[in-house]
Amino acid sequence: MKIKTWFFVVLSTLILSITCNIVLGVKLAKSLSETVSFDDLRVSLFELTIEYNLEKNYATCFSTYEKGIYVTNYHSFIFCEDDIENAQITIKDYEANVCQVYLYGFNKDKDIALLKSDDFFSKNIIELSESNPKTGDLCYSFANANGLGISLYDGLISNPSIELIVDGYSQRYIQSNLPAYPGCSGGCLLDKKGFCIGMVSFRIKDKNGDPIIDFSYSIPSNTLREEINNILGESLK
Question: What is the pTM of this model?
């Protein structure tokens, strides 16, 4: 009797273990199947270069809404905003194709700018997902750090909605521990499934005025969507 009981206990445990592994495998497979390909997203990100009076500034932009429209941060143009018409603005895609673009519209307070090209169109566009991240969520960003090309970074959401006053204007941002090197402004903030939930925008400085690289702040996709519609509406009038 003891041997039979022991046999059935082992058999039941083995069956339960196999069942759990199958269930977990199905869930994992389902999760992976719902994940957006980073390679597909990569073609929608661009290296942004702004040149004016021998000065050069690097940033990132990505295509969204309609082909030929690219979104980035307005602060990347501050150094030449008084003579923006004479600045040379170019974007470079993943195949090293370079195209000239122009400033189509912007909201300086919200730090959002739209660029447009009349003869160059991205193969894909990045749709802005609903921004509802949670503390501790895995996140990613594509960015042109230090002007060295588009690279993928990973991190965690440390505060999904933090209110900061930037240049006298109060706004809510997503805080993460993604790196924020020069050139990362305008990068795409992605959730763990690869959906765009914001735009990497800036970093803050410590009490000595030195940049804190280990934290970055992103404009939520909900704000981006609203302001892009406003800018396009103003630009089309």
Answer: 0.78
